[in-house]
From TrEMBL:
GO terms for cellular component: mitochondrion. This is Iron-binding zinc finger CDGSH type domain-containing protein. Pfam families: zf-CDGSH (PF09360). Gene3D superfamilies: CDGSH iron-sulfur domain, mitoNEET-type (3.40.5.90). It comes from Takifugu bimaculatus. The keyword Methyltransferase does not apply.
Amino acid sequence: MNPGSLAVAAWRGCAQTFGRPRLLLPVSTLKVQTCLQSSERVPAARLPYRVKVSSEKRYAWCACGHSQKQPFCDGAHKTKAPSIAPLRFTPEKSKAVMLCACKETKNPPYCDGSHFKVIFQDIKKSVKGIFKS
Ligand code: FES
């Protein structure tokens, strides 16, 4: 399953659980985080996290989106998404970085702008829903 269809599947799961998506953007973090019935990757948020990292520390970036300590792993994948392991990394330099929260980046754990695609898909679905009813 490619990342795009994975995001759509996760979104459909949330929409079935919580009703039709609204035009309010970004989607509330609470709503996204409470959609934990999925055993697949879910977006933790629609925008990246700005985090100061140290080159002397090793980090575990949450790849499944279920962690309550975003953008880092809290072990939630063990029960919520056992097939998705966190990405362990040590930054080359100590500096502030943008870590992906939408979980669609092609350059994990760093944001590559893929969240715009996720936001665009949200808008497209919301607009489609308005004109259907
Ligand atoms: S937050 Fe995921 S690519 Fe930007």
